[in-house]
Known about the structure:
Strand order of the largest sheet: 9-10-11-12-1-2-13-18-15-14
Number of helices: 19
Number of domains: 4
Strand content: 25-35%
Low-confidence stretches: none
Amino acid sequence: MINQDWFEMPDIRRRTFAKSVWIPLRAKNSIREEGKLGYEGYISEFFGAGSIVVPVNHKADAEKLGWMDVGILHSHSGCVQDGEYIPAHLYKDFHGSFVGEHLVLEQRGNSIEHSEWYLSQDFVITLGLKREGDIWVRPDEGYIEIAKLSRKEDGSPISLEVRASHLKDYLCARGMALYLVSYRDRIIVAENRDLVNWNLNTFSETNKMDRWEGRISEIHEGGMPFGESMAVFHITRTDVDPEEDVPTFGLPTDDSTISNSWTKKYSGKKLFIIEGELWRKEWIDPAVTSPLVREDEEIPTVFFITDSEGKMESKKSLIHGGRWLWFRPEVVMALTHYRGGSLSWYTRYTGSVSCSPDYKVTFGINPLGLVNVYAKDIGVLPEWQQKIWAGYNVAPDGKVSKELLKSQVEAKPADTQAPETYLAVGLKLLKEVSKDKLGFSVLREHESLPELLENTHRFRAIDKAGLYSLAKDVARLTADSIDATAIQTIVKPPKGEKWGSLKSLENLLAKRVDPQIARSMLTSLVGAYDLRLGDAHLPSDKIGEAFDLVGIDQSLPLVHQAYQLLDECVKSIFRIVEVFMQWDETQ
């Protein structure tokens, strides 16, 4: 709403960037522009900002600088000042009292090339940032955004902001503060001045760091000052001969020029330009500590349950002594959903999980389907990762995973295998062997195969819907991928009978093994195919049959039911591979 507050900006003047999540290091943003300047209905709003970092002991010296010194009037380049070369990233004030730095450098363009803005290389490298387009992310923190550059539609930059927490950490490590100077302008061209009740045409308020001005100007429609006139001077040279091949002329004199002048009075409808301007100087002070850059030790804020009585402990004590923590299985999905997250398997019930590539944590699964992790492995994680784990921490229950204990206490890893590891292997073998023996692959290529394989694991089954969803993906990798058309070139259904993909494969296998054995090989895959319909509200007796076909014990925790689903289906795939490996076309 356009009213007096819009010009006086009380909301803007109350807020400070020091309390914001994002800090603009540089801005040149025409937030709003409607209509044509000088004509009724014109509205515009502009925000600009410039900044330098200054040693904290020179803050008083820097405060002498204003918008004209630190703002957006200047692009950046190296220069020679008093015989000394000053690199582009440095700011050296004319009094020589301090040397600051620009965290954003503007490289000037030309009439057809817009300028480009660059974020300080030291800031980027020191914080371990990775630029992706106009976003800088931090891989070591789950690829969160640390800095972002906004542009106009034509590609010209309008704002470069950084996350306050990381900026303040960086400033702390360097013993510096950010001096931020900004300017905001709001303008309207109106038929009258009733939008404001200022008694004077110019009104201002000033304190140590802010200066606000309100201004009303009378104009003729088109923008010229109301009631005033313009003097026009016209001068002509008389000493240039256009017939000369190479005409020359010197400085003008009374004898070589003819001049005349006249006055033009402005006219047109009377309008008013109402304008509010705010100049602001602000400090973004460094943080008290610098855990990221200087690796200062932080006061722990994350705690974990470590015994049956609910005792809560932080990383300070977790890194000492031998013990384990318990987590709900949902923690695995939460971690792997982060960019850079991963899940891999060592044995049937142990593996590693991470939400960041360089922080893999070994885990085990206990009889209740809970996830166990050695406490010290959690204690040494960065705090942002500990917060994720803590959200799924539970009191000890169901003992520690036997396979995890066997590995971490006895140093004798279990001689077992996780079906997740062999699903991709089995599918690849089935394609290769069937193509070698039959001349075609019994499985069609699936465009989403890598993504499906990555997400086909037991931790999907955090509830019944998750188990059915897992079954659906198993069916997509098996039954839905079987090339029934190709198979039926070898085994054709009787006239009037229609075979599905699994039935076609069953009859193909029956050419080399007993039909009952062929059927048993596919039983678990048929069950998985039926289970995928579980979320479509099939009758309970049909669902029960599907669980029985796969060989799933529904009394077990869901994570273990999902293991059985995967294990039985992988076994089926390898049994089918064995048949094709012994296939002899001469028989």
